[in-house]
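seq as requested:
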Amino acid sequence: MVNLCRLKIAWRRGLFDKANQLYLQNHNHPLFVQILFKPRTKMSRNDVDRIAGMVVHLVKETPIEPGSFKTLERSRENSGCFPKEIVMIYIYAQLNGKENKWHCSSNGFIPQITPEQLQEKIERKDRKLNNYKFNCSERWLLFVADDLRIPSTVDLTVSAFTYQYNTRFDRVFFFWNSSRRYIELQVINTIQTT
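struct tokens:
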């Protein structure tokens, strides 16, 4: 008996190999591409060429500056050219990359972090500051979303990007390891170091 789960994984790998080959036929700028399939997607060997062609077409038609990223999602407007088996395509145009990296992402819910949740995490780190020995003029805090299987293990709400966080750290960053992108959060350094 053939393991259908293994077959699905093999077809998805084949899809990424095919899409990468199609892309490299006419383009040489390195991209990092991740694709999130719909849960319980039915896909066969016959679907590989069709989906790979559609993905490459979408990637090629998406304007993107080196060092930046784009997230493509299926919508009413693009439903004719966006494969129904896919929920999202994440594209990162590598600034100094040398090779294309196309990956299949596992299914899952991507939680969004609110400013209040992030402020609570910052406060926990603030409480530990006195335990650390620093010999530097500034203290930075880095949060890392670190799971290479999906484009983001977490995301931030829109308000989390603009919220001003109260902290003793001089700078606070949020980094998504899978896409190698980061943002600097806005901070108000009103708490004095003791």
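The radius of gyration is 20 Å.
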